[in-house]
Amino acid sequence: MGYNLLKGKRGIIFGALDESSIAWKVAEKCFEEGATFTLTNAPIAMRMGAINQLAEKCKTEIIPADATIVEDLEKLIDQSIEKLGGKIDFILHSIGMSPNVRKNKPYTDLSYDFLMKTLDVSAVSFHKVIQSAYKKDAMNEWGSIVGLTYIAAQRAFPSYSDMADAKATLESIARSFGYHYGKLRKVRINTVSQSPTWTTAGSGVKGFDAFFKYANTLSPLGNASAEDCANYCVFLFSDLSRMITMQNLFHDGGFSSTGVSEEIMEMMSDGKEDSKI
């Protein structure tokens, strides 16, 4: 049951691919909380997913757009405002892709052409989305923009490769543009650093299964689910979070603040004391 937290609010949701994606869950929760919104994804991604089912469920429309192409974004914003009947109150950026990861290129042997694509799709697109909305004055005052990120932006996770660099850039964009958009229209911009989550994108990272189990064992609350992340995004889109901006917000069951857990210690122990430790 919803609480009408987003009643009367309009939005744009990027990145819903299938039922396992966080953006899909966010769309369902936003609809449940009374919001109207448009759905968008790159044309090639839309052919891979089942976004039409989501659009039907949420009684909305799909507007294809490549988030790396400014002209596409400008059309998306104009059409969304027209279809929704007014300026936008929230935007979700749930976009990430690394050709290096897909091609199993190690971080010590990156293709730099692939790296540029990773940065453009996974980070610079966030700036392009925000800048397009900024220049068009498309957001209502106290609007909210959220980008999804990961703790690899702060800490080394070897198999995450150049996506870590992209997420670090994404978080920096949220801080920098958060200042300017806050001054102009009191629009808040934040990133949510989510637990490892079983999504199409996440499960493509080498060793994801083992790391998912590790993070779940380390975190005192366990891994946060896609549904929990959707609830958190709804909170950030709502008026309850009006004074939160330029933040990277960890939504990971306590993983980011835990050094080691008792369970991990037991797994690593051979039952003998080592006087040298």
List the helices and strands and how they pair.
Blueprint (H helix, E strand, L loop, with lengths): L9 E5 L7 H11 L3 E5 L2 H6 L2 H7 L12 H15 L3 E6 L5 H4 L9 H24 L3 E11 L13 H23 L2 E7 L13 H11 L7 H12 L10 E4 L10 H7 L9
Parallel strand pairs: 1-2, 1-3, 3-4, 4-5, 5-6
Number of strands: 6
Uncertain runs: none
The assigned structural class equals alpha/beta
Give the SSE order as H and E letters. EHEHHHEHHEHEHHEH
Please state roughly what percent of the residues sit in beta strands, choosing from under 5%, 5-15%, 15-25%, 25-35%, 35-45% or over 45%. 5-15%
Please provide a written account of the structure.
This protein is α/β, with parallel strands linked by helices. The protein has a single domain (10-268), classed as Rossmann fold. It has 10 helices and 6 strands, in the order βαβαααβααβαβααβα. It has helices spanning 22-32, 43-48, 51-57, 70-84, 99-102, 112-135, 163-185, 208-218, 226-237, 262-268; strands at residues 10-14, 36-40, 88-93, 139-149, 188-194, 248-251. A 6-stranded parallel sheet has the order 2-1-3-4-5-6, with helices on both faces. Strand 1 (10-14), helix 1 (22-32) and strand 2 (36-40) form a beta-alpha-beta unit. The chain is globular and about 65 Å long.
